[in-house]
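Action item from last meeting closed. Structure (171 res):
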């Protein structure tokens, strides 16, 4: 009997301790679940743009498609150029690929028969340049502008609107 009384006396204490621990565990679990639900809900609202989303101006910019030109200008590729540069201290070579953008199809059609004069003028200009003159972006832009002026003089119009370098290798 003494052991029964002892067990019955310990049992209420153990039950009380077990209920306290279980209650605090339940509170922790409820807190974690609440944080996860709130975080998930907030993340969903943010992702859909309800909160913290883009402004109306940004939304309008995204909604408006990029407008491409209705008619692309024709380009005329020229055969690759390999020329000696004007450097006297060491031989340097320039390998250059060029495409010419014409204002319209009529100008593009005129470029073809003028190719020998165009190539001669390009070779003359390129071989007069040193590596120091064409090595940086400013030098390339200057060369591009000089070519544009020369080629439009050959054609007798301002029909070439842009000179594109498709290859530019100096060795």
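Sequence:
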């Amino acid at each position: 009997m003494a052991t029964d009384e002892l067990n019955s006396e310990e049992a209420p204490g153990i039950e009380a301790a077990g209920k306290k621990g279980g209650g605090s565990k339940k509170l922790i679990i409820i807190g974690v679940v609440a944080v996860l639900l709130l975080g998930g809900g907030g993340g969903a609202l943010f992702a859909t743009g309800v909160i913290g989303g883009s402004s109306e101006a940004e939304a309008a910019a995204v909604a408006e498609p990029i407008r491409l030109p209705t008619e692309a200008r024709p380009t005329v590729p020229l055969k690759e150029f390999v020329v000696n540069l004007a450097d006297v201290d060491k031989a340097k070579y320039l390998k250059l690929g060029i495409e010419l953008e014409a204002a319209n199809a009529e100008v593009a059609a005129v470029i073809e028969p003028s190719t020998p004069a165009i190539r001669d003028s390009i070779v003359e200009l390129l071989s007069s340049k040193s590596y120091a003159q064409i090595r940086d972006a400013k030098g390339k832009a200057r060369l591009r502008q000089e070519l544009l002026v020369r080629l439009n003089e050959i054609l007798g119009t301002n029909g070439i609107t842009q000179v594109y370098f498709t290859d530019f290798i100096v060795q």
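Note appended to the action item: The longest strand covers residues 160-170.
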